[in-house]
Every structure is written in C-alpha cells, then in structure tokens.
UniProtKB/TrEMBL annotation:
Organism: Strigomonas culicis
GO molecular function: ATP binding; microtubule binding; microtubule motor activity
Origin superkingdom: Eukaryota
Name of the protein in its database record: Kinesin motor domain-containing protein
GO biological process, one term: spindle elongation
Alphabetized Pfam families for the sequence: Kinesin
Amino acid sequence: MMGADVNALGGEGAGVIPRVCEEIFLRKCMAEAEGRSRWTLELGYVEVYNERVSDLLAERPKDAKTTDEVFLEVREHQKDGVFIVGQRFVVVDSPADVVRYIEMGNKVRHTAATKMNKCSSRSHAIVMLSLKEERTNTSKKGKMKTAGRSSRMNLVDLAGSERVKQSQAEGQQFKEATHINLSLTTLGRVVDMLADNANKSDKSQMMVPHTASRS
C-alpha cells in the first residue's frame, strides 16, 4: 500500500507502479522467449469514495467529471475471493499502457482543494494487475498439454488521514474526510488483529473486522 505522499506513477523518477510493471513485462519476455508459455496482463483501476466503489476505467461520456454513475457492488466468492461486479479490465502490452490507463482514470478520480493540499485525493485508489499464463508441456508419451495459472496483485494508493481543524473541511469535504479517517482507522485495526491472531491458536483467534469498511 502507498500513502498519499507517495507518487505512485513517479515524478522525476519512476514510481512504484511503473517499476512493478517493468519487472512483470521483463519476466514475461523472458518466459515467452522459451516458446512454451504465453502471458496476458490485464489492468483494473477503481476508487473507494465515501465507502462506495467505482470503476475509474468504465466507459463514460467524454464530458463526465465524476464517477457517480458507475458505483459497483463488492462481493465475495467462496473460491475466488473478493471481486467487484461489472468491473472493467483492459489488456495491457507494456508499462506505457499501464501508465496511460491510470492517467485516464485519474481524470475522473475524486480530488479537491483544501487548506492543506491544492489537489487532495478524496478517495482511496486500487490498481489491480491480473496475470494469466498458458504453458505448453510435452508429456512422457510425446503429447502436448496446455495448462494455465493466474495471479493477481493489488497496489493501493491511500488517501491521507485528515485533521479537519487544519484542512478546514466543510460540507461535502467534511463528509469525505470523515469516511477517509474511518476507513484508515479500520485498516489499522485489521492489521493489528491479523498480527495478534498470527500468534494464537485457531480457537483463540479474534474475528477480524474486514467488512467494517469498504476500504
């Protein structure tokens, strides 16, 4: 996870996300050069705004400025885990593609000017990278077999905690700050309880409040 003071895309130097993607595509080229596997990388980009999730890559009118019309539901699958209903994923072929789509999503991400920050993020953002590999192997009998596997990485850009007295947030900005601070507090509780449970037996572990906040 990245805090609000970390430039995920990078300013003068490469940010976290481009560097991660460069490493993935480097390994992709090396694996595919062997001729036995094919990798496909898909990108998703969402934000959590006032405890609601919206798709920053959803197709919308050119003059759209907010994501109010594309809030989505978060559900949990018994096997595949948490997923977002109707989320759009796009195939990316290079780190430049990733940066281009994220910059496109940032144009509709919720931001606002406060006394503390001229361009304050009013939401948490999640970059989702889904990697799928198809590998072809030769069996002992000389037959070709194709197997697949997949993995997913989530990179989170957290909005910073906000002291309302200093930012002088009012109205909608006050509501946004309240949700941001609540979600960050919940995240801290989750991390603390996961750490505590790691040293306890299954029977003595406490229930982790994952669903206390959308974030």
